[in-house]
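Researcher: Please translate sequence to structure tokens.
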Amino acid sequence: GKADWRAIARVRQAVSIPVVANGDVGSPEEAATILEQSGADAVMIGRAHYGAPWVAGSVAAAAADTSTHDIPETPQALADYVVAHYEEMLSLYGVESGLRQARKHLGWYLDRHAARASAEQRKRILTSFEPTE
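Model: Translation complete:
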């Protein structure tokens, strides 16, 4: 089903602490709508950022009325983004842990952007123990 953003409004009215709304938000327009319908103090991005980690930044940029240039707009820009993300994870966590950490992100990128990847390609990417394979 779809998140009931109006139900969050009842929670907001019942508590005196800040409320963060979440559920089915993947664009600046949806973020504005959930805030309007719920009366929440903030919005959180969940699954919509899987394979598109720039979504939260684009929502924040729209809320701040600024532009963002972090959204890859061409296949090459997307490939560069994914490679940079992968390399940063290897650098941060080290090769062994970085490979494990990166797999979920690579899987999300494949799910969202590479629907034509074969099962064999996907398996090779997600089970590799060598960062350059």
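Researcher: Any highlights?
Model: The two ends are 39 Å apart (CA to CA).
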